[in-house]
Design brief:
Elements (H helix, E strand, L loop, with lengths): L1 E5 L6 H6 L4 E3 L2 E4 L2 E4 L6 H11 L5 E3 L3 H9 L6 E4 L8 H12 L4 E3 L6 H16 L4 H11 L3 E6 L4 H5 L5 H9 L2 E8 L2 E9 L1 H15 L9 E4 L3 H10 L10 E2 L2 H7 L4 E6 L2
Parallel strand pairs: 1-2, 1-6, 6-7, 11-12
Antiparallel strand pairs: 3-4, 3-5, 8-9, 8-13, 9-10, 11-13
Amino acid sequence: MRLITDSSSDLTPELIQKFNVDLVIPMKISIDGKEYLDKVDIQDEPFYHELLPQCADLPKTSQVTVNEWLEIFGRYPDEELLVLPISSGLSGSYGSACVAREMLGREDIHIVDNKSTALALALMVEIAASKRDQGLAAREIAKELEALSGRVRVYAVVETLRYLVMGGRLSKAAGLLGSALNLKPIICLKDGVLSAVGKARGTKAAIKLMRELVDANEEIDPAYPVYYAHAFNDEGLKQIKEAFRDYPSAAPDLTVGCIVGTHTGPQVTAIAFIRK
């Protein structure tokens, strides 16, 4: 069985090796008309510190196309594949993968709409790798991940409103007012879609509210790993891990890469978990 995901998972080289991931497909991002392959042509640090602050328009991300999936599946003609792409609610990659599978008529390709991205997708990859190492077949793992997909969550604090305004998720007037008041939105990834669930004045208050929202609306399942990530915000990461100190990290802290960071901007901090 081969395990395949995409670069929106933000897996480090060490985790790719640890989980024995066979292929991480680089997603594409276009910045002011120039296209880059995530984690190949562009790395996270220059993206946040150089390219994103200077871009005239919000960068655009592209799905993995049907033809690209056909080429990828063709590399493993006689092997079972377990494929974990970015959430169908955020990208067309999942749909393209399903079309490619149907064109090939293969029943040994198991594509999971795990309703995740970034650190949540990395979490799902770890669960898949663990099940594989326990001896489960790809079809069994796919069913388990599909059952978990409705329970995976990400909560994050967004430090700047600029990119929410550029992406049309927030009006310019609301962005100006929010910036003047130092408002920090709290966003949640649920059922594969990102939505705003709260806001507070200042990072410390936002992280406190985040914990309150999780306690009020979720119950973290300690049977599964908990992941943390940030976009070059060590202090914010420290604060969020302190707020959730009863749920220690199951992996090295991840960096939110450019695929998700295009929309959340720099210095975002986040936690991912499976709810009971």
